[in-house]
Design a protein that fits this description.
alpha/beta, six-stranded mixed barrel
């Protein structure tokens, strides 16, 4: 037996940590993963590793993972050939569109789509042929408001200013828990050391969250906030900055700032205090401290995105960074300059060019909010969705009112899933096409390099050989496209492999042939630990893509939405609001099928403040019933002083109890799905993004 050491980055979460993977080669040629450790020579992650990276070997060896196409016959699954699978998919989708129109086929792309470069480069090679306006993705249960605000203010949805965490003196985090997420719209491996370094250099970390999270425990100050109250807090902060003359000039060209100043005038800290649950004096002092810092950055994530004022929150965050002079400044919020620049190579996008059929929700970048998916399947009439293609997604567990979607999937004429598992969603599919595993394919992180706190680059070669008869994800899309094109009698454009595309993008990019770096795949192959291309720097002014070539501070749709905030009713004193949470051991629902990620104490309980338990005559460890407008679940409750009174928390991704799921480990740690309680009618009014946080619930003894 021989052993080899491979260098690779993990792409199961946003951190893209460098790994050292030891592989043993048996005399029969079989390869066995020996160990997975952090790579101390990786210039970005510096040896950091989290439990998800170690689980790469579990994905590789998982007996539940599909390894060839499977067709559902009744309640049974039958393995079929790739040629048969491609023909079946093309024929059924083509037939639905011929009978009911092109929009009768819908597409849903899940979160893992941005973690696999073959999905990034080639999914549209096939999906684009369908020419359907019913396209959905995990974006609208996550970060859609952030993209929309960048599109409206800067002209491109991927011009996303990232916290310069390594140089800031004051970091204000709202609704984010980077110690559990490793960043999220802020690619930052080893975030704990970076946050501790911030404090060690005399900086300050403030976390605003309805739960005293892992990141809040590390902070200098933690402020409890009523779920859904972040927009009120942010409006109070911005108002204070203007009212107390704390605003600074910006080096960026800006239009509309006077309109913002006038529109925000009624939203004083005193007026907003009742809606966010934070005293007016603390709001004002926070604004003063932020403005006085030599460098500062305000950063908001899932908690502020997935609420009823998600777009308003992210607009106010950008304005706070802008008016204090910290936007596009070292130690503030900076845009990356990646080696493969998706901003330079894609259009700025569009918003509200068309709307969903039933609820008239706006599209962004060609996608509709996924909160509308179930009603598009269930509502009869011209344009009703009758077939669905899912790509690396489990919307039954990850989108609002999952039970309604679960029911809707039963009525489809045809469903195709590109996925590794028979999960809560794909159990409804007529055909499942699995790709190779993460260790069997190459990878380049074009998405998460775009969001990194430093400009870095690396190319990951496959560690294990592609098994005989298996296909990479991009090869699946090419096969589907060829089969569909034959029926549609359209001529396909020639395509390259993902590696060839990345090589061209590297050579033609800012660090390519015209630069001293002379980047190409050959260059990166010579640097298996990756390359550090330097810290973030000021560049937004030259990259603005708005029609005015300025930062457009006052998009009318957001100025108008301030009136909705002004009309917000005071909170009820006896109301319970549900929020989600994330654990460092989980990312997507399929990761619950790996023993090393679910072992140990249970992590799926409902967290509830002891005072709220006492009020309802409940006790720690009891089984309780949680009700919302959309349904009810039963789960064990855990008393938790880290919860704000009036707020309860369930983690997302659980709920592995449905019949037909073939994920043995996950089913043994089933938990309940928080999205059986979330409400598809609760949405951000501007973007249509799902409001998964701040859901009214009742809790009683089971």
């Amino acid at each position: 037996m021989t052993k080899t050491l491979h260098h690779r980055a993990c792409h199961l979460c946003e951190a893209i940590c460098g790994l050292n993977i030891e592989v043993s080669h048996e005399p029969n040629g079989h390869a066995v993963i020996g160990s997975i450790k952090g790579d101390p020579l990786d210039p970005f992650s510096r040896g950091h590793i989290c439990p998800k990276a170690v689980a790469l070997q579990d994905i590789q060896n998982d007996p539940d993972r599909l390894r060839q196409p499977h067709r559902r016959i009744g309640e049974q699954w039958q393995a079929i050939s790739w040629e048969e699978a491609f023909s079946l998919a093309a024929e059924r989708l083509w037939a639905v569109q011929q009978a009911h129109g092109r929009n009768a086929v819908a597409v849903y792309q899940g979160n893992p789509s941005v973690h696999n470069y073959g999905l990034m480069t080639h999914s549209n090679y096939f999906l684009g042929l369908l020419k359907t306006r019913n396209r959905f993705s995990a974006t609208s249960v996550d970060q859609l408001p952030q993209h929309l605000i960048s599109h409206l203010m800067y002209g491109h949805g991927l011009l996303l200013p990232i916290p310069d965490i390594d140089h800031t003196q004051f970091m204000l985090i709202l609704g984010g828990n980077p110690l559990a997420s490793n960043g999220s719209i802020m690619t930052v491996p080893d975030v704990e050391k970076r946050l501790k370094a911030l404090r060690a250099r005399g900086g300050r970390l403030v976390v605003v969250d309805p739960r005293r999270s892992e990141t809040a425990n590390l902070a200098d100050d933690h402020l409890f906030i009523r779920p859904g109250g972040d927009a009120a807090l942010l409006a109070g902060l911005l108002n204070t900055l203007f009212e107390e003359n704390l605003a600074r000039g910006s080096h960026l060209p800006v239009t509309g700032l006077q309109q913002v100043r006038e529109a925000i005038a009624p939203f004083s800290a005193e007026a907003m205090s009742v809606h966010c649950g934070i005293e007016a004096a603390r709001i004002r002092q926070l604004a003063r401290d932020f403005a006085a810092a030599q460098s500062a950055v305000c950063y908001g994530r899932m908690g502020v995105s997935t609420q009823a004022f998600g777009s308003l929150c992210h607009w106010l965050i950008q304005l706070i960074n802008l008016v204090t002079g910290h936007l596009d400044r070292e130690g503030g919020a900076l845009c990356t300059e990646p080696a493969v620049d998706l901003v330079a190579s894609t259009s700025g996008g569009h918003f509200n060019v068309w709307q969903s059929r039933v609820s008239a929700l706006p599209e962004y970048g060609g996608e509709l909010p996924v909160a509308a998916l179930a009603e598009e399947l269930l509502t009869p009439g011209d344009g009703q969705v009758r077939a669905l293609v899912t790509v690396a997604g489990n919307p039954v567990l990850s989108t609002p009112n999952g039970r309604q979607l679960d029911t809707a999937l039963e009525g489809l004429e045809f469903m195709l899933s590109i996925d590794l598992y028979i999960n809560e969603t794909t159990r409804h599919a007529d055909l499942i096409l699995p790709s190779t595993s993460a260790l069997e394919n190459d990878h380049y992180d074009s998405t998460f390099n775009l969001l990194a706190v430093r400009n870095v680059t690396r190319f990951n070669r496959a560690i294990l050989a592609k098994p005989e008869g298996a296909l990479h994800d991009w090869e699946i899309f090419v096969g589907l496209a060829q089969a569909y094109a034959r029926l549609a009698e359209v001529e396909l454009k020639n395509t390259w492999s993902p590696a060839q595309m990345i090589d061209l993008a590297l050579r033609k990019g800012r660090y390519g042939e015209a630069s001293p770096w002379n980047l190409s795949l050959q260059t990166l192959d010579q640097h298996p630990h990756g390359l550090d291309l330097g810290p973030l720097r000021s560049n937004l002014g030259a990259r603005l893509a708005t029609s005015s070539k300025t930062v457009e501070a006052a998009p009318q749709v957001l100025i108008d939405d301030l009136q909705r905030l002004a009309q917000l009713a005071p909170p009820s004193s006896d109301e319970l609001l549900l929020i989600g949470r994330r654990h460092v051991r989980s990312n997507n629902s399929w990761m619950h099928n790996f023993q090393r990620l679910v072992k140990g104490k249970p992590r799926h309980q409902l967290l509830m403040h002891p005072h709220d338990l006492q009020q309802r005559q409940l006790h720690d460890g009891q089984r309780v019933r949680i009700r919302s407008r959309t349904g009810e679940v039963e789960v064990q409750v855990q008393a938790c002083d880290d919860m704000m009174p009036g707020v309860v928390s369930l983690p997302h991704g659980f709920g592995h109890t449905r019949q037909g799921v073939q994920m043995q480990v996950a089913q043994a740690h089933a938990g309940v799905s928080a999205n059986d309680l979330t409400d598809e009618r609760l949405r951000d009014a501007v973007s249509g993004n799902a409001a998964l946080n701040g859901v009214p619930v009742q809790v009683s003894a089971a």
